[in-house]
Specification:
Distance between the termini of chain A: 45 Å
Radius of gyration of chain A: 28 Å
Order of helices and strands of chain A: HHHHHHHHEEHHHHHHHHHHEEHHEEEEH
Keywords (chains A, B): Cell membrane, Ion transport, Magnesium, Membrane, Potassium, Sodium, Sodium transport, Translocase, Transmembrane, Transmembrane helix, Transport
Enzyme class (chains A, B): translocase
Membrane topology (chains A, B): Multi-pass membrane protein
Oligomer: homodimer
Largest sheet of chain A: 4 strands, antiparallel
Largest interface: A-B, 114 and 112 residues
Strand content of chain A: 5-15%
Structural class of chain A: alpha+beta
Helix content of chain A: over 70%
Shape of chain A: globular
Subunit structure (chains A, B): Homodimer.
Catalytic activity (chains A, B): Na(+)(in) + diphosphate + H2O = Na(+)(out) + 2 phosphate + H(+)
């Protein structure tokens, strides 16, 4: 029997997309200003589109290449269906579509925000946040629509829309992993490429414009100024959107995989009102309701007072955010209660099958919501304006750039302490509550309000751009003051948003990691095996080298920009007097080309290493797939642990330097003296910020993608290494489990009990082999067989254990 | 029967110490100069002693506290003997003694080198390298004497000097671990405290002297100048010495533990010419012969030409180094061939017991020698004067401090790539050759020439100090030219020395890690268990936070120094005119106090976390020691992986910045123009070097100790969590192994074979349970039992497998 529930998330996604369309129409209906404003905004819009077009052209090649590779895999591996290629292409397409939509609306909203700021602050917030909402709902709506839609199609294709077996469902989910892989691949290039683009344009514009030519920032005479503004959209809007799109999809997918595993633990079949797939549908349902609550949340974000300050704007955002989170928590309570069996069975290492009440899954989801918020708060503490760590960096600026840099590095490094402890506590507690399904549900709950998070995130760069347009169009000062308030709040939300993105990426990777282990069918990943340990080291190194490559890429791309701007200053007559027109398009092109060229190497590193490890493993160990799977697992763990650390370190160090520099704008007290912009201390802080820029906008955020994509690639490779490849026929309903217990009978005897359990479509047979050794004598072996249903056999085994 | 071989290493150690004494007498007999030279050198000597005294006073408290804690452990855990406390105290004492000796000779040699440089370069090298030799042989001699001596005593006390069982030997080695723990604890404080001291004095002296007062470096009017010179000795000589002393002892110990495990795998007893403990004696023998070869190597280090340049001096050092390494390789061949059974049995995961020829252990030791050299070379490539990466940083200095800092960070980060790959390859290949015993032997071979390595290391700071004394005493220019040549070579050897120290620490930790697993008796460390994974994350975070604390400590300690120097400049009349005498002692005292105060928090972090994890685990899981042991193992792995990465990153970034700055002394070509000291690019490079200073001299080198000490603490805690506590009676010669094989018989049948092997003092019984499932039918189970010796049973199993 098929439940209507399976269609609910799609329905919610469509509501979300409908609401988005309405909002979009409303935003586009707003006055887009006139004259210079419109001209500049058009440049930015076209520049952004030009980047997207060039990027998509390149990505098309990648998608074709990767599709061929995937088709090859599906040909070789019997359990991998050719449809994975279709899923992959659609995943890539949906992600690109979401990015495209987001960029377009963001670049359309900025000028409208400027125009709205000419009337009032509440109106400016309404417009800019409206743009953010469109972005957020677009990403979330497309993600849920695509993933759920594909699931329904595959469920019908492979299983006829009714439950058959966990093995068939595994096949469905393995194919669905293609969708997630496609989305995350696009995210890699969007994040890395966008990150390089935005910083190359920024540095290039500053170095030649501000430093060499001595003209102010955002001056229209600077040929790179449009590229700089495009960069904000390319990096902060499209990059972040693709990142969260990927996390969102991957989290739900991983939770579904683990839900299937729960059903397996419960004997391969459950009876519920949802066609026996309640645990698999639950994460999708949470995602669907999350869209609804995000809509409600966004409707609450408003202010009425034109004289409002940052605090009120922040409060309005917070209210919307917390309401959507609270509603999600309530929904989780009901959804978990309704969709999961009241008592589930889950296998825990060393403890065997355990009864888990569904409420424990709810608690796990609460922990997910809490940790998302807590990690965001920690991020804000280490990077926010006026916080203790940032003020400490300000103080250290008085003794020069060297001490400023050291203080910023140390702040980023120390910030890993609470973040990692929170994260470790989340892993541990959610697992203790409900196994890896609990971990995945925690991640799902956290990601449920992605639409709201993205709306808050995207409104920042929109306001930033709006301010830039106001500056370039020489509008009255009060306009800039209003956009500055929004921009300032946007900086805070950007920092917390980065915290959220890391937390989500980390939990997502963990869930994927768990899904990987169940897909490959290995017992675990034993790092005491030397090849596995070696790969743990290699995995740990990858994020470090990736970050370095990304940082160097920014440097190289920036140099391309510098040469181009210099050329234009020299060759275009009258450019400095404002009579000659700079070729903005050339700079956009240069930045685009450089970003695309430079993102190749990190991309190859990310995608190539897992594949190289499998090939190497195959060469050395041949058919010992178990060991190769463990090696790849060790690599994935290394990337995740090191990636989370370097993400937190780089993002927070970068954020702290940025705000330490910004502190000088309002003036800071150093050694009893008020110090302002232009002072030596400020110059030192500027140096720190230069170091921090690629940290927080390029290499830091790329870590999220790196860890998720690594785990996803592992997941897609998993079937090749899976136990159910060699013994494909065997898995048909047969499940053998070996339990060894060591029960010393008395002081001079030792007893070794080996239980081998065979599960054939629910009929369980257990063989108990007992070896007794008395007083160093000969070992005596006894064998006993118990048969019946899972529950009966377990009961008998329990009785035997007591003997 | 006891073999004479057990006394050979002690004999070698005594030869080493005798040679050291002779060399020491020769060095002290050299002319120590006169007047101002002597005065300055006396100040340095006294300052160094003052630091040591204060440090030892503090450490005495620590040793007492730790001894009480250890006594508590030995009281609670039946297999831990109270003698561990004695071993601990002796380990601490020997390490402190070695450090003391090294510091004394280094501070005595520097002025004698200056004096020798007045006559000729060959003589200056002879004296400075003579001092280094004393240091190297002192450390190595005391390490081997202490460890081997204690082993013999414990072997006689616990086993009566003859082989009884692997369990008794485990007790011996567990107690011996106390010696290593004592040595490493002292190393922690010597490295961290020394690192903080040297940079605090350096920065303090520069900031007030050079920048504020405008007097040159090493100017005797600067009150902090003596503290600065003391710092070189405290950090580079004593810190490095204690570090390598610790690595040396820990490596040999870990190899011995794993040697005992080899004997266990071979049935708990072997027959050889060494009383049945050949595999345990081998690492000690290699260490002993290594001392001999180091002596030979040091005798080859000489030049004859007074007009020699850096290249010739470097060549002389290289010849000595390579000869000692080559001799060690040859010795390994004979020792391995003689001391190990021709064919050994070792358990490999998933492959069961395997026959391993002793030559494979020799190949593993060759890999160790190779990797030590290769990692040193990689370090030199990324940090050496005139190398591509360093020149790239120089180029980036032209666009300011920001780009210089980014380039330096990126260089350090990228340098982890070859280093980690080399290291991973070493783990993998040495394990494949001869299990974890192979890994430990590789480390032992690498560490065998520690005396030579230290001699080369210590000669650098001695020459540096000699140059400083020449400067302060206003000696003729040719003296400074000669010491500068030595100093320059010393900088290169310092970089490669750091590479060697990291490589040794990493391999040592790995060997300790393996020893830990065997001590606790767990099957492995499964990071798919959520609590274990959580601890992997926590462990990964510790090196990052530790580094940040160390860096901040330098900042705080430097500020103390700044205030003191400012005070003296203000309060002492005539100090700037050279008529008033600065209070050097006060500065030494300030630096000492600050260093000791600031090393507390990182120390507590290092020692406290493993203990906290065990306590937390006990609270949550009660008696599930297996899980707690795995959690601690996960933590250790996290610290090691992350620690190696951060060590390489920080050391190499720091080294690269340093030499990028130094490049400006001879002038560098930037954008087609020769650029020198004092240019803007040079100022940017100085900023980079300021950031790099705590990286390479404080936090980076501390990582070595952090990872080794973490693994050692784990090793000492291991018996508490060990399987042989709860089931102590059972392990008496009984060894049960469960092997599961999955052999699909045909397309429609599946076969599951579970083999349970019981080994009672060499008599093996295997039970084979076969479960067949045909066409989804009922499972059919068959049981067979095979008995006999290990070899017979294995043969029968092989035959059965073919069916």
């Amino acid at each position: 029997m098929e439940s209507i529930m399976i269609y609910v998330p799609i329905f919610m996604a469509i509501i979300g997309l409908a609401f988005m369309s309405a909002k979009r129409a409303w935003v586009l209906k707003q006055d887009a200003g006139d004259g210079k404003m419109k001209e500049i905004s058009d440049y930015i819009y076209e520049g952004a589109l030009a980047f997207l077009k060039a990027e998509y052209r390149l990505l098309a090649f990648f998608v074709v290449g990767a599709s061929i590779a995937l088709a090859g895999i599906s040909y070789v591996v019997p359990t991998t269906h050719i449809l994975i290629v279709v899923a992959f292409i659609f995943g890539a397409f949906f992600s690109a579509l979401a990015g495209n939509m987001g960029m377009k609306i963001a670049t359309k909203t900025n000028v409208r925000t400027t125009q709205a700021a000419r009337t009032s602050l509440p109106q400016a917030l309404k417009v800019s946040f409206g743009g953010g909402t469109v972005m957020g709902l677009g990403v979330a709506g497309l993600a849920v629509l695509g993933l759920t839609g594909f699931f329904i199609i595959l469920f019908h294709l492979f299983m006829g829309g009714i439950w058959t077996s966990t093995e068939d469902m595994t096949k469905v989910l393995e194919t669905l992993a293609g969708f997630s892989l496609g989305a995350e691949s696009i995210a890699l290039f969007a994040r890395v490429g966008g990150g390089i683009y935005t910083k190359a344009a920024d540095v290039g514009a500053d170095l030649v414009g501000k430093v060499e030519a001595g003209i102010p920032e955002d001056d229209p005479r600077n040929p790179a100024t449009i590229a700089d503004n495009v960069g904000d959209n390319v990096g902060d809007v499209a990059g972040m959107g693709a990142d969260l799109f990927g996390s969102y999809v991957a989290t739900v997918l991983a939770a579904m995989v683990l839900g299937n595993y729960v059903i397996k633990d419960m004997g391969g079949k459950i009876e519920d009102a949802f066609g026996g797939i309640g645990p698999i549908l639950l994460p999708m349902a949470i995602a669907g309701f999350g869209i609804l609550f995000s809509i409600i949340g966004t409707m609450l974000v408003k202010i009425t007072d034109d004289n409002a300050k940052e605090a009120q704007v922040q409060k309005a955002l917070n209210i919307g955010n917390w309401v959507s989170i609270a509603l999600t928590a309530v929904a989780c309570y009901f959804l978990v209660g309704k969709m999961l069996p009241e008592t589930m069975k889950m296998t825990f290492f060393g403890e065997g099958l355990q009864d888990i009440s569904s409420m424990r899954v709810f608690y796990a989801s609460l922990i997910g919501l809490f940790v998302g918020g807590a990690i965001s708060s920690v991020t804000e503490y280490y990077t926010g304006l006026g916080t203790k760590p940032v003020l400490a960096i300000v103080q250290k600026s008085s003794t020069g750039a060297g001490t400023n840099v050291i203080a910023g590095l140390a702040t980023g490094m120390i910030s890993t302490f609470p973040t990692v402890l929170l994260f470790a506590a989340a892993i541990w507690s959610t697992y203790a509550l409900a196994g890896f399904y609990g971990v995945a549900l925690a991640a799902s709950a956290m990601m449920a309000t992605t639409a709201m998070q993205l709306a808050i995130d995207a409104f920042g760069p929109i306001s930033d751009n709006a301010g830039g347009i106001a500056e370039m169009s020489e509008l009255p000062k009060e306009v800039r003051t209003r956009t500055d308030i929004l921009d300032s709040v946007g900086n805070t939300t950007a920092a917390t948003g980065k915290g959220f993105a890391i937390a989500s990426a980390a939990l997502t990777s963990l869930a994927l990691f768990a899904a990987y282990v169940t897909f490959t069918g290995i017992d675990g990943i034993n790092i005491f095996k030397a090849p596995v340990l070696a790969m743990l080291f290699v995995g740990g190194m990858i994020p470090v080298v990736f970050s370095a490559l990304a940082m160097n890429s920014v440097g190289k791309a920036a140099m391309d920009m510098v040469y181009e701007v210099r050329r234009q200053f020299k060759e275009i007559p009258g450019i400095m007097e404002g009579t000659g027109k700079p070729e903005y398009g050339k700079c956009v092109e240069i930045s685009t080309k450089a970003a695309l060229r430079e993102m190749m190497l990190p991309g190859i590193l990310t995608i190539g290493f897992p594949i190289a490890i499998v090939i190497l493993g195959k060469l050395v160990y041949g058919d010992n797939n178990q060991l190769i799977a463990e090696m790849l697992g060790g690599y994935m763990a290394g990337v995740t642990v090191s990636g989370v650390l370097w993400a937190v370190f780089q993002n927070n160090a970068g954020g702290a330097w940025d705000n330490a520099k910004k502190s000088f704008e309002a003036g800071v007290m150093i050694n009893g003296e008020m110090t302002y912009k232009g002072s030596d201390a400020h110059k030192a802080a500027v140096t720190g910020d230069t170091v921090g820029d690629p940290f927080k906008d390029t290499s830091g955020p790329s870590m999220n993608i790196l860890i998720k994509l690594t785990c996803l690639i592992g997941l897609v490779i998993a079937p090749i290494l899976g136990g159910h490849v060699a013994g494909a026929e065997k898995t048909k309903g047969v499940n053998v489990e070996v339990i060894t217990t060591d029960a010393p009978a008395s002081k001079n005897t030792s007893r070794e009990v080996v239980v081998s359990k065979t599960n054939v479509d629910g009929k369980v047979s257990a063989t108990i082999t007992t070896t007794m050794v008395e007083n160093d004598g000969e070992p005596v072996t006894q064998t006993q067989t118990v048969e019946g249903t899972e529950a009966e056999v377990n009961k008998k085994l329990e009785e035997l254990k007591k003997q």
